[in-house]
Specification:
36% of the residues lie in helices and 29% in strands. By secondary structure, the protein is an alpha+beta fold. Strands 1, 2, 3, 4, 5 and 6 form a six-stranded antiparallel β-sheet that branches.
Length: 156
Amino acid sequence: MQQDNWARPEIVQWCQYLLDSYAYWVKQELIHRNGAPLEQAERLFNSPLVVASHGMEDDPVLNYGNRTALNLWAMDWEQFTQTPSRLTAEPINRKDRARMLEQAKTQGYISDYHGIRISSTGERFLVEKAIIWNIRKPDGTALGQGASFSSWRYLR
């Protein structure tokens, strides 16, 4: 069940890496970090911000999406976390998306990104003011990339 996935121990740990990495690169917290890691994972999952991430595969697969992200892309947890992240953009927009991810990879993060994305139902939307950051372990080992934004509009 989608509501319970955020509470799985490996997802709670992933949320800590995601939140710690955001704070490391952006120099501010993504959400209020009080409480135990489980409470923070719940707060992140229920945040009105879109928060999503992917791993380090050759063709990175989404591995986390909070409730807002799942709703925006019109997917459940299982579908979302089996989707190659490139498929969140239409083919025509994938080169721009790849360029942006590479820029974030070399700089650590980028802010104020904007781009067109597409939901599983084919609905297009413009993401505005997104922050993309590298997710890493405390020792610096690269784990993937995260994205967060609170501003989008549907393109009809």
